[in-house]
Amino acid sequence: MIVLRRRLLIWLIKAYVKRWRKSIAIYFGIGLFVFFLFNRILSYPITRMPFIEKEIIGMVGAYTADRLPAEILNKISRGLTKASDDGKIFSDIAQKWKISPNGKGYAFFLHKNIYFSDGKNLTSKDIAYDFSDVSVIRPDKYTIVFNLRDIYSPFLTTVARPIFKKGFVGMGDYRVKKIKLNGDFVESIELYSEKKKKIYIYQLFYPTDTALKTAFALGEVTKITNLSDLSFKNTTFSAFKNTAIAKKVDYDKLVTLFFNTKDSALSSKTLREGLSYTMLDNFDQGERNSGPLAHFSYANQGGVNIYRQDLEHAKLLIEGSETATTEGKLSLAIDTLPKYEKTAKIIADVWTKLNINVEIRTVNQIPSSFQVFLGEFNVSSDPDQYTLWHSSQVNNITNYDNKRIDKLLEDGRKELDIEKRINIYSDFQKYLLSDPPASFLFFPYYYEVSKK
């Protein structure tokens, strides 16, 4: 009986399969497909689903499209060359370069596998630096030649500037997704990286630190940068919960005490030397740098620091200067940018102890006329400082006129040999500090505040 039932069951199954075999095959196939599809979908979020991180960064300033902060430009493109932290030059989108025997021609040979963010292959036609007194030849698709009117050794640093096509299309990790303008000024710019799965939105319209700090407190931005201090109303950002604070050094600016060398008092070299000996060995506001060249520059081989604070020696020099002997008690006015008022007061306190009358005046820009100005200058990765100290230059705000320094600056920007340039700028720094048009103070600290 059991055998009959088993046979009957087998017969029924065979009959069912025979009748519905097409439907069974179809639904089996559909089920198998659905199984693998769901298996793939369920595993995708864990291993492959992109997580897009977004950061909204606020900055103080007014920026035009061709004057954006380097932090933004370097994210969205690259230059023919790139500079290391100490100023040495290396290849970037150019795999190599060749300088002509007369030192005026620069041929750059491009990598052939560099692409813009829109997918277009970079060619020599895409390189359009706006240089004056420079002619350009493009011998082939991946070669570009610049012919300069005169020898200019910092040229390799100049072509480290990021290259763009129209619309801020570059070759960096990030592409410009959106840009908002207010007249000629950029209000915000949004960057996106498919590779890094990250969005940066830069808000660039804040007029003051106070406005920027308020925006962070209200949650309008998730990060603020280039703050000179952490104070906010009656508290400090250090007291904010879920807030990260980073203290950094701005190596692009060197805070400097400029002397007007044409002033009746400060025309005295002895007086300027004496004032230089009054500078503190360390400042709380930044990382000390006592010479015109950055202490980490490849051209700064001597580690010059001849003006360590020596108040006794300073007093002798100040009292022995022609100004002190002919006019009696010395009076000096320090014009300072608002962010360096604290430093100005520290210097004024030292000078007061040396029987100098000091007046501090706050200014928002370089004054057209001053005795002493506490400000800053932009530090290039190249040691060339021709525009700052050469007697022929309008940016020589100290009215400095030293023929030896003029000659060294002229030679430095015409010498192509690295070792010879090092020797030239070593002499430049040594002789400039022996006849100081300024006291070089520090690279300023700044703060970044962000949401955790």
Automatic annotation (TrEMBL):
<dbReference type="InterPro" id="IPR039424">
    <property type="entry name" value="SBP_5"/>
</dbReference>
<keyword id="KW-0813">Transport</keyword>
<dbReference type="InterPro" id="IPR030678">
    <property type="entry name" value="Peptide/Ni-bd"/>
</dbReference>
<keyword id="KW-0732">Signal</keyword>
<keyword id="KW-0812">Transmembrane</keyword>
<dbReference type="Pfam" id="PF00496">
    <property type="entry name" value="SBP_bac_5"/>
</dbReference>
<dbReference type="InterPro" id="IPR000914">
    <property type="entry name" value="SBP_5_dom"/>
</dbReference>
<keyword id="KW-0472">Membrane</keyword>
<dbReference type="GO" id="GO:1904680">
    <property type="term" value="F:peptide transmembrane transporter activity"/>
</dbReference>
<comment type="similarity">
    <text>Belongs to the bacterial solute-binding protein 5 family.</text>
</comment>
<feature type="domain" description="Solute-binding protein family 5">
    <location>
        <begin position="91"/>
        <end position="392"/>
    </location>
</feature>
<dbReference type="GO" id="GO:0042597">
    <property type="term" value="C:periplasmic space"/>
</dbReference>
<dbReference type="GO" id="GO:0015833">
    <property type="term" value="P:peptide transport"/>
</dbReference>
<feature type="transmembrane region" description="Helical">
    <location>
        <begin position="24"/>
        <end position="42"/>
    </location>
</feature>
<dbReference type="GO" id="GO:0043190">
    <property type="term" value="C:ATP-binding cassette (ABC) transporter complex"/>
</dbReference>
<protein>
    <recommendedName>
        <fullName>Solute-binding protein family 5 domain-containing protein</fullName>
    </recommendedName>
</protein>
<keyword id="KW-1133">Transmembrane helix</keyword>
